[in-house]
Protein backbone atom coordinates (compact mmCIF):
# COMPACT_ATOMS: atom_id res chain seq x y z
CA UNK A 1 0.00 0.00 0.00
CA UNK A 2 1.33 3.41 -0.97
CA UNK A 3 2.28 5.99 1.65
CA UNK A 4 0.00 9.01 2.07
CA UNK A 5 1.33 12.20 3.61
CA UNK A 6 -0.26 15.39 4.85
CA UNK A 7 1.42 18.31 3.11
CA UNK A 8 -0.64 21.21 4.45
CA UNK A 9 -3.75 21.93 6.46
CA UNK A 10 -5.72 25.03 7.31
CA UNK A 11 -8.96 25.97 8.99
CA UNK A 12 -11.08 29.04 9.46
CA UNK A 13 -11.67 30.31 12.96
CA UNK A 14 -14.82 28.69 14.31
CA UNK A 15 -17.76 31.00 14.83
CA UNK A 16 -20.67 30.48 17.18
CA UNK A 17 -24.08 29.83 15.67
CA UNK A 18 -25.43 33.29 14.77
CA UNK A 19 -21.98 34.63 15.59
CA UNK A 20 -19.18 36.33 13.70
CA UNK A 21 -19.42 34.09 10.60
CA UNK A 22 -23.22 34.19 10.35
CA UNK A 23 -23.21 36.15 7.07
CA UNK A 24 -20.95 33.72 5.26
CA UNK A 25 -22.61 31.58 2.61
CA UNK A 26 -21.32 28.03 3.26
CA UNK A 27 -20.07 27.70 -0.32
CA UNK A 28 -17.98 30.84 0.17
CA UNK A 29 -16.76 29.59 3.56
CA UNK A 30 -15.65 26.25 2.13
CA UNK A 31 -14.08 27.91 -0.91
CA UNK A 32 -11.98 30.16 1.32
CA UNK A 33 -10.39 27.14 3.02
CA UNK A 34 -9.77 25.33 -0.28
CA UNK A 35 -8.11 28.40 -1.75
CA UNK A 36 -5.98 29.06 1.32
CA UNK A 37 -4.59 25.53 1.68
CA UNK A 38 -3.39 25.56 -1.93
CA UNK A 39 -1.77 28.97 -1.50
CA UNK A 40 0.06 27.83 1.61
CA UNK A 41 1.26 24.65 -0.06
CA UNK A 42 2.35 26.51 -3.19
CA UNK A 43 0.75 23.89 -5.43
CA UNK A 44 -1.18 24.60 -8.63
CA UNK A 45 -4.87 23.94 -8.17
CA UNK A 46 -5.00 22.04 -11.43
CA UNK A 47 -2.79 19.29 -10.01
CA UNK A 48 -5.49 18.19 -7.55
CA UNK A 49 -7.20 15.03 -8.80
CA UNK A 50 -10.22 15.07 -6.51
CA UNK A 51 -11.75 17.03 -3.64
CA UNK A 52 -13.73 15.17 -0.98
CA UNK A 53 -15.77 17.44 1.26
CA UNK A 54 -17.68 16.52 4.40
CA UNK A 55 -20.97 18.28 5.09
CA UNK A 56 -23.57 16.87 7.48
CA UNK A 57 -26.65 18.79 6.33
CA UNK A 58 -26.33 18.95 2.53
CA UNK A 59 -29.55 20.81 1.77
CA UNK A 60 -30.55 24.39 0.93
CA UNK A 61 -27.39 26.56 0.92
CA UNK A 62 -25.28 23.43 1.51
CA UNK A 63 -27.01 21.37 -1.19
CA UNK A 64 -26.29 20.53 -4.82
CA UNK A 65 -22.84 19.05 -4.04
CA UNK A 66 -21.26 21.83 -2.03
CA UNK A 67 -17.83 20.29 -2.70
CA UNK A 68 -18.08 20.99 -6.41
CA UNK A 69 -19.61 24.43 -5.95
CA UNK A 70 -16.90 25.41 -3.46
CA UNK A 71 -14.15 24.16 -5.77
CA UNK A 72 -15.48 26.23 -8.65
CA UNK A 73 -15.88 29.27 -6.39
CA UNK A 74 -12.29 28.83 -5.19
CA UNK A 75 -11.02 29.00 -8.76
CA UNK A 76 -10.06 25.38 -9.34
CA UNK A 77 -9.98 24.47 -13.04
CA UNK A 78 -13.15 22.78 -14.24
CA UNK A 79 -11.30 19.48 -14.74
CA UNK A 80 -10.82 19.16 -10.96
CA UNK A 81 -13.81 17.16 -9.62
CA UNK A 82 -15.31 17.24 -6.14
CA UNK A 83 -17.83 15.33 -4.07
CA UNK A 84 -19.78 15.93 -0.88
CA UNK A 85 -20.15 13.11 1.67
CA UNK A 86 -22.14 12.69 4.88
CA UNK A 87 -21.13 10.36 7.69
CA UNK A 88 -22.73 12.71 10.18
CA UNK A 89 -20.22 14.03 12.75
CA UNK A 90 -17.49 11.90 11.17
CA UNK A 91 -17.97 13.47 7.73
CA UNK A 92 -14.77 15.50 7.71
CA UNK A 93 -12.74 12.56 8.98
CA UNK A 94 -14.38 10.28 6.42
CA UNK A 95 -13.48 12.78 3.70
CA UNK A 96 -9.89 12.43 4.86
CA UNK A 97 -10.18 8.64 4.76
CA UNK A 98 -11.70 8.51 1.30
CA UNK A 99 -9.10 10.88 -0.14
CA UNK A 100 -6.28 8.93 1.52
CA UNK A 101 -7.67 5.59 0.35
CA UNK A 102 -7.75 6.77 -3.26
CA UNK A 103 -4.06 7.64 -3.02
CA UNK A 104 -3.23 4.41 -1.19
CA UNK A 105 -4.98 2.44 -3.92
CA UNK A 106 -3.01 4.17 -6.66
CA UNK A 107 -5.94 5.78 -8.44
CA UNK A 108 -4.56 9.27 -7.79
CA UNK A 109 -1.53 11.02 -6.33
CA UNK A 110 -2.91 14.33 -5.06
CA UNK A 111 -6.23 14.92 -3.33
CA UNK A 112 -7.90 17.44 -1.05
CA UNK A 113 -9.94 16.48 2.01
CA UNK A 114 -12.18 19.22 3.33
CA UNK A 115 -15.23 19.95 5.43
CA UNK A 116 -17.72 22.72 6.03
CA UNK A 117 -20.80 23.45 8.09
CA UNK A 118 -22.80 26.59 8.64
CA UNK A 119 -25.08 25.64 11.51
CA UNK A 120 -26.38 29.19 11.42
CA UNK A 121 -27.61 29.00 7.83
CA UNK A 122 -28.61 25.30 7.76
CA UNK A 123 -29.75 24.07 11.18
CA UNK A 124 -28.73 20.65 12.45
CA UNK A 125 -31.35 17.98 11.78
CA UNK A 126 -33.11 19.93 9.04
CA UNK A 127 -32.35 17.19 6.50
CA UNK A 128 -34.86 14.81 8.11
CA UNK A 129 -38.27 14.69 9.76
CA UNK A 130 -40.62 12.27 11.54
CA UNK A 131 -41.06 10.34 8.30
CA UNK A 132 -37.36 9.76 7.63
CA UNK A 133 -36.98 6.59 9.70
CA UNK A 134 -39.59 4.01 8.64
CA UNK A 135 -41.70 2.22 11.23
CA UNK A 136 -40.13 -1.17 10.48
CA UNK A 137 -36.70 0.19 11.42
CA UNK A 138 -38.03 1.91 14.53
CA UNK A 139 -39.44 -1.43 15.65
CA UNK A 140 -35.90 -2.87 15.65
CA UNK A 141 -34.01 0.04 17.21
CA UNK A 142 -34.76 2.86 19.61
CA UNK A 143 -33.78 6.08 17.89
CA UNK A 144 -33.18 8.88 20.38
CA UNK A 145 -31.61 12.32 20.43
CA UNK A 146 -27.84 12.34 20.88
CA UNK A 147 -28.27 14.33 24.08
CA UNK A 148 -30.41 11.56 25.52
CA UNK A 149 -27.75 9.09 24.38
CA UNK A 150 -25.15 11.11 26.27
CA UNK A 151 -27.30 10.84 29.38
CA UNK A 152 -27.48 7.06 29.01
CA UNK A 153 -23.72 6.82 28.46
CA UNK A 154 -23.14 8.80 31.63
CA UNK A 155 -25.40 6.39 33.49
CA UNK A 156 -23.85 3.26 31.96
CA UNK A 157 -20.26 4.30 32.66
CA UNK A 158 -20.88 5.98 36.02
CA UNK A 159 -20.08 9.55 34.96
CA UNK A 160 -21.30 12.27 37.34
CA UNK A 161 -22.56 15.79 36.64
CA UNK A 162 -19.61 17.16 38.60
CA UNK A 163 -17.14 15.23 36.44
CA UNK A 164 -18.81 16.50 33.25
CA UNK A 165 -18.75 20.12 34.41
CA UNK A 166 -15.14 19.83 35.55
CA UNK A 167 -14.17 18.43 32.16
CA UNK A 168 -16.07 21.22 30.38
CA UNK A 169 -14.34 23.86 32.48
CA UNK A 170 -10.98 22.29 31.65
CA UNK A 171 -11.82 22.39 27.94
CA UNK A 172 -12.42 26.13 28.11
CA UNK A 173 -9.28 26.77 30.14
CA UNK A 174 -7.15 24.76 27.76
CA UNK A 175 -8.62 26.54 24.73
CA UNK A 176 -8.10 29.96 26.31
CA UNK A 177 -4.50 29.15 27.23
CA UNK A 178 -3.77 27.71 23.79
CA UNK A 179 -5.18 30.80 22.10
CA UNK A 180 -3.13 33.13 24.28
CA UNK A 181 0.00 31.08 23.60
CA UNK A 182 -0.57 31.27 19.84
CA UNK A 183 -0.80 27.50 19.42
CA UNK A 184 -3.47 27.82 16.72
CA UNK A 185 -1.67 30.55 14.78
CA UNK A 186 -0.27 28.33 12.03
CA UNK A 187 -3.43 26.35 11.34
CA UNK A 188 -5.77 29.36 11.36
CA UNK A 189 -6.49 31.62 8.41
CA UNK A 190 -7.76 35.15 9.09
CA UNK A 191 -11.26 35.77 7.80
CA UNK A 192 -13.65 38.68 7.66
CA UNK A 193 -16.68 38.48 9.93
CA UNK A 194 -19.28 40.72 11.54
CA UNK A 195 -19.77 41.78 15.14
CA UNK A 196 -23.14 41.92 16.90
CA UNK A 197 -23.81 45.37 15.41
CA UNK A 198 -23.13 44.15 11.88
CA UNK A 199 -19.80 45.93 11.63
CA UNK A 200 -17.17 44.16 9.53
CA UNK A 201 -14.30 42.79 11.63
CA UNK A 202 -11.18 40.71 11.07
CA UNK A 203 -11.63 37.34 12.80
CA UNK A 204 -8.32 35.89 13.94
CA UNK A 205 -9.37 33.36 16.58
CA UNK A 206 -12.16 31.00 17.58
CA UNK A 207 -15.26 32.63 19.02
CA UNK A 208 -16.35 29.85 21.37
CA UNK A 209 -14.04 29.82 24.43
CA UNK A 210 -15.68 31.61 27.34
CA UNK A 211 -13.34 33.73 29.44
CA UNK A 212 -15.93 34.04 32.21
CA UNK A 213 -16.77 30.36 32.56
CA UNK A 214 -16.45 28.93 36.06
CA UNK A 215 -17.37 25.70 37.79
CA UNK A 216 -19.98 27.62 39.74
CA UNK A 217 -21.65 28.95 36.58
CA UNK A 218 -21.56 25.53 34.93
CA UNK A 219 -23.19 23.98 37.99
CA UNK A 220 -26.11 26.43 37.75
CA UNK A 221 -27.09 25.39 34.21
CA UNK A 222 -30.22 23.27 33.89
CA UNK A 223 -30.31 19.89 32.10
CA UNK A 224 -31.38 20.16 28.48
CA UNK A 225 -32.52 16.71 27.42
CA UNK A 226 -33.74 14.81 30.48
CA UNK A 227 -35.36 16.17 33.67
CA UNK A 228 -32.88 15.76 36.53
CA UNK A 229 -30.24 14.78 33.97
CA UNK A 230 -26.61 15.90 33.80
CA UNK A 231 -26.21 17.11 30.20
CA UNK A 232 -26.37 20.90 29.92
CA UNK A 233 -25.43 23.48 27.34
CA UNK A 234 -22.22 23.92 29.30
CA UNK A 235 -20.91 20.35 29.00
CA UNK A 236 -22.05 19.83 25.40
CA UNK A 237 -20.35 20.82 22.16
CA UNK A 238 -21.25 24.19 20.68
CA UNK A 239 -23.18 24.60 17.43
CA UNK A 240 -20.82 26.40 15.09
CA UNK A 241 -19.83 27.66 11.66
CA UNK A 242 -16.50 26.83 10.03
CA UNK A 243 -14.50 25.16 7.27
CA UNK A 244 -11.16 23.40 6.91
CA UNK A 245 -9.03 21.70 4.25
CA UNK A 246 -6.06 19.32 4.12
CA UNK A 247 -3.82 18.59 1.12
CA UNK A 248 -2.82 14.92 0.81
CA UNK A 249 -0.24 13.41 -1.50
CA UNK A 250 1.50 10.16 -2.26
CA UNK A 251 4.86 10.47 -0.49
CA UNK A 252 7.04 10.21 -3.61
CA UNK A 253 4.89 12.75 -5.43
CA UNK A 254 5.38 15.23 -2.61
CA UNK A 255 9.16 14.73 -2.78
CA UNK A 256 9.17 15.21 -6.55
CA UNK A 257 7.34 18.50 -6.12
CA UNK A 258 9.84 19.61 -3.50
CA UNK A 259 7.23 19.67 -0.75
CA UNK A 260 7.76 18.83 2.91
CA UNK A 261 5.55 16.12 4.32
CA UNK A 262 4.31 17.07 7.78
CA UNK A 263 2.78 13.72 8.77
CA UNK A 264 2.00 10.32 7.29
CA UNK A 265 -1.25 8.45 7.68
CA UNK A 266 -0.56 5.13 9.39
CA UNK A 267 -4.07 3.70 9.60
CA UNK A 268 -7.73 4.62 9.44
CA UNK A 269 -10.79 2.69 10.61
CA UNK A 270 -14.54 3.06 10.88
CA UNK A 271 -16.77 0.96 13.14
CA UNK A 272 -20.43 0.51 13.87
CA UNK A 273 -21.78 0.49 17.42
CA UNK A 274 -25.12 0.37 19.22
CA UNK A 275 -27.42 2.86 17.41
CA UNK A 276 -29.18 3.89 20.62
CA UNK A 277 -26.17 4.56 22.83
CA UNK A 278 -24.40 5.53 19.58
CA UNK A 279 -21.71 7.82 21.04
CA UNK A 280 -19.52 5.19 22.73
CA UNK A 281 -18.35 3.87 19.35
CA UNK A 282 -15.12 5.76 20.05
CA UNK A 283 -14.13 2.91 22.38
CA UNK A 284 -14.19 0.05 19.81
CA UNK A 285 -12.81 2.39 17.14
CA UNK A 286 -9.78 3.14 19.31
CA UNK A 287 -9.28 -0.51 20.13
CA UNK A 288 -9.50 -1.46 16.47
CA UNK A 289 -6.95 1.06 15.24
CA UNK A 290 -4.53 0.17 18.03
CA UNK A 291 -4.89 -3.53 17.20
CA UNK A 292 -4.37 -2.75 13.54
CA UNK A 293 -1.14 -0.85 14.15
CA UNK A 294 0.19 -2.81 17.11
CA UNK A 295 0.51 0.40 19.12
CA UNK A 296 -0.71 1.12 22.64
CA UNK A 297 -2.32 4.26 24.01
CA UNK A 298 0.85 4.84 26.02
CA UNK A 299 2.75 5.25 22.74
CA UNK A 300 0.35 7.90 21.43
CA UNK A 301 1.69 11.38 22.12
CA UNK A 302 -1.50 13.33 21.44
CA UNK A 303 -5.18 12.46 21.05
CA UNK A 304 -7.98 14.53 19.56
CA UNK A 305 -11.36 13.04 20.48
CA UNK A 306 -14.40 15.06 19.60
CA UNK A 307 -16.14 16.47 22.65
CA UNK A 308 -19.70 15.98 21.41
CA UNK A 309 -20.66 15.72 25.09
CA UNK A 310 -18.39 15.45 28.12
CA UNK A 311 -19.48 11.85 28.95
CA UNK A 312 -18.21 10.65 25.56
CA UNK A 313 -14.62 11.53 26.42
CA UNK A 314 -14.92 10.50 30.06
CA UNK A 315 -16.43 7.08 29.27
CA UNK A 316 -13.70 6.51 26.65
CA UNK A 317 -11.00 7.49 29.13
CA UNK A 318 -12.46 5.40 31.94
CA UNK A 319 -12.73 2.29 29.76
CA UNK A 320 -9.37 2.51 28.02
CA UNK A 321 -7.34 4.12 30.80
CA UNK A 322 -6.13 6.99 28.61
CA UNK A 323 -4.03 9.77 30.08
CA UNK A 324 -6.14 12.93 29.80
CA UNK A 325 -2.96 15.01 29.97
CA UNK A 326 -2.42 13.93 26.34
CA UNK A 327 -6.03 14.38 25.23
CA UNK A 328 -7.49 17.56 23.69
CA UNK A 329 -4.67 19.53 25.27
CA UNK A 330 -5.72 22.72 23.48
CA UNK A 331 -9.39 22.36 24.31
CA UNK A 332 -12.14 20.62 22.36
CA UNK A 333 -15.58 21.11 20.90
CA UNK A 334 -17.13 22.10 24.24
CA UNK A 335 -15.01 25.25 24.12
CA UNK A 336 -13.94 25.60 20.49
CA UNK A 337 -17.13 24.47 18.76
CA UNK A 338 -18.26 21.65 16.52
CA UNK A 339 -18.95 22.75 12.92
CA UNK A 340 -20.20 19.26 12.08
CA UNK A 341 -18.87 18.52 8.59
CA UNK A 342 -15.64 20.42 9.17
CA UNK A 343 -14.74 18.98 12.57
CA UNK A 344 -12.69 15.99 11.38
CA UNK A 345 -10.49 18.16 9.17
CA UNK A 346 -10.28 20.85 11.81
CA UNK A 347 -9.11 18.38 14.47
CA UNK A 348 -6.52 16.86 12.15
CA UNK A 349 -4.98 20.26 11.41
CA UNK A 350 -4.72 20.80 15.16
CA UNK A 351 -3.28 17.33 15.75
CA UNK A 352 -0.52 17.76 13.16
CA UNK A 353 0.35 21.19 14.52
CA UNK A 354 0.44 19.91 18.10
CA UNK A 355 2.73 16.97 17.25
CA UNK A 356 5.11 19.43 15.61
CA UNK A 357 4.99 21.72 18.62
CA UNK A 358 6.00 19.00 21.08
CA UNK A 359 8.13 17.03 18.59
CA UNK A 360 5.87 14.04 19.24
CA UNK A 361 5.64 10.97 17.04
CA UNK A 362 2.13 9.47 17.02
CA UNK A 363 -1.24 11.16 17.02
CA UNK A 364 -4.74 9.68 17.21
CA UNK A 365 -8.00 11.29 16.15
CA UNK A 366 -11.34 9.63 16.96
CA UNK A 367 -14.90 10.89 16.52
CA UNK A 368 -18.28 9.54 17.67
CA UNK A 369 -21.10 9.49 15.13
CA UNK A 370 -24.89 9.45 15.21
CA UNK A 371 -26.80 6.18 14.77
CA UNK A 372 -23.84 4.34 16.29
CA UNK A 373 -20.56 4.67 14.38
CA UNK A 374 -17.08 6.06 14.95
CA UNK A 375 -14.04 6.94 12.85
CA UNK A 376 -10.39 6.86 13.90
CA UNK A 377 -7.16 7.93 12.22
CA UNK A 378 -3.60 7.39 13.38
CA UNK A 379 -0.81 9.57 12.04
CA UNK A 380 2.97 9.79 12.50
CA UNK A 381 4.83 13.08 12.36
CA UNK A 382 7.45 13.21 9.63
CA UNK A 383 10.86 14.42 10.75
CA UNK A 384 12.55 16.59 8.12
TrEMBL record:
It comes from the Bacteria. Residues 260-381 form the Thiolase C-terminal domain. Residues 4-251 form the Thiolase N-terminal domain. Keywords: Acyltransferase, Transferase. PROSITE patterns: THIOLASE_2. InterPro entries: Thiolase, Thiolase-like, Thiolase_C, Thiolase_CS, Thiolase_N. Belongs to the thiolase-like superfamily. Thiolase family. This is Thiolase family protein. It comes from Laceyella putida.
Amino acid sequence: MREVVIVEGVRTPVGKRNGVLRRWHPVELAASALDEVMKRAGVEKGKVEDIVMGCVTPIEEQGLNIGRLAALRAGFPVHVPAVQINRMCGSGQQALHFAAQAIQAGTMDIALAAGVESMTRVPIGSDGNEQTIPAALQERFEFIHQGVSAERIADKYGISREACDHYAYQSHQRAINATKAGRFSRELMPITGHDSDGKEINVMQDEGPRQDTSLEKLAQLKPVFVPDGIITAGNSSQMSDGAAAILLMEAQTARQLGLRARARIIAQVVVGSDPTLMLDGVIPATRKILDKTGLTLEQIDRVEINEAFAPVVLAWQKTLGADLAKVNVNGGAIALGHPLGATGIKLMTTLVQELERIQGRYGLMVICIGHGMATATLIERVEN
